[in-house]
Specification:
Length: 344
């Protein structure tokens, strides 16, 4: 029988790509999403790619009674992948309580329902933001956690601590915490991808929307950093590669491949790429011209960070395999598809 997984935030960017990979691997997926930063279209996209429509319910993870009812209804959920969260760094500075409420309460609810429903494992979406500005790059999982530079970043740190404290208290669950670097790109079918509400805060959607003419000009936040070309450096990881790591993590917990109750992995390529290199690469592989200008630094940005992904490579047997060129092509194909559909 297919194992059933609850995916919170499954209509969102990383959640939808992960649902595709879970279904391809033979899992049955139940998605809950409040659609606050996603649309039901991604469920259609998942069905088009896999031929299977995941179960979907519009539920807010903070609504504990609704959550309990859903889990009872399905009866045999074995694992949770918890994506649902607010993720705009700038907004979190303006609305800290919203971020603490959404990102902390929802995780507590997930953890609380696990033992009583015999749900064995939870994969948690964390971020390289927990490292702050690294002393050295590439950065591995043993690096110190630095004070968070935003409420958003703080929620990820607190979430990681909550999971560890709960498991330390003897809760009969396992967890794998995945620290993402910068996920970009879209499924090669262009049926699912990243579609932020309003003005994009992240680099790639701003690039693709500028290239297609929705935005007039891309602002590059700073070219006076201590990096070869002066712009910030990130580890841009293909979203499908990233999604596949979640399937491996879920298999690992459900099949008890490790005795550890909590494990932490960096998910990145191991390569640092600057913002200007990314822009140039996007123009080159897609043969488009981008209107961009250099502006002042954005508050709170990290200068340079890229992953040491060896632990995930060795222990999980996972490795990022997509090239940056193909990833940038997939991002543009997705934007063209949105235009074709009249969405953006
Ligand atoms: C940020 C968070 C990360 C979070 C992610 C999800 C920090 C330090 N990073 O990643 O934890 O998981 O958002 O939303 O908290 N840039 C431009 N112009 C733009 C947009 C971005 O130049 O219009 C630059 C930024 O200055 C940065 C790079 O592009 O140097 C990447 O920015 P972005 O895509 O927003 O991701 P992060 O800030 O790395």
């Amino acid at each position: 029988m297919k194992k059933k997984i609850l995916v919170t935030g499954g209509a969102g960017y990383i959640g939808s790509h992960t649902t595709v990979e879970l279904q391809n691997a033979g899992y049955e997926v139940v998605i809950i999403d409040d659609l606050s930063n996603s649309t039901i279209d991604s469920i259609d996209g998942i069905e088009k790619i896999t031929g299977v429509r995941p179960h979907f319910e519009q539920i807010d993870c903070n609504d504990l009674p609704a959550l309990k009812e859903l889990v009872k209804k399905h009866g045999d959920i074995q694992g949770i992948i918890h994506f649902a969260a607010s993720k705009a760094v700038g907004e979190s500075v303006q609305k800290p309580l919203l971020y603490y409420r959404n990102n902390i309460d929802s995780l507590i609810n997930m953890l609380e329902i696990m033992p009583e429903n015999k749900i064995k494992g939870i994969v948690f979406s964390s971020s390289c933001t927990v490292y702050g500005e690294p002393d050295n790059n590439p950065i591995d999982e043993t690096a110190p956690i630095k004070p968070a530079t935003s409420p958003y970043g703080n929620t990820k740190q607190i979430n990681e601590e909550i999971i560890q404290d709960y498991i330390r208290s003897g809760a009969p669950i396992k967890s794998i915490i995945l620290r993402y670097f910068n996920p970009i790109g879209a499924h090669p079918s262009a049926e699912i991808g990243e579609l932020p509400n309003g003005v994009p805060q992240n680099l790639i959607p701003f690039i693709t929307q500028t290239a297609i003419g929705v935005r007039e000009c891309l602002s590059v936040f700073g070219d006076d950093y201590n990096t070869p070309d002066g712009s910030c450096i990130r580890d841009f990881i293909n979203v499908v590669d990233l999604a596949k790591a979640h399937v491996i993590a879920m298999d690992r917990m459900l099949e008890d491949k490790s005795d550890e109750k909590v494990e932490i992995f960096n998910l990145g390529t191991g390569n640092g790429v600057s913002v200007l290199e990314l822009i140039n690469g996007f123009e080159r592989v897609n043969d488009v011209k981008l209107n961009y200008k250099i502006v002042a630094r954005r508050g709170g940005d990290i200068e340079k960070i890229w992953a040491e992904p060896t632990r995930a490579n060795k222990v999980l047997g996972w490795k990022a395999v997509e090239t940056l060129d193909d990833t940038l092509k997939s991002a543009w194909l997705w934007q063209l598809k949105l235009r074709e559909k009249g969405i953006m």
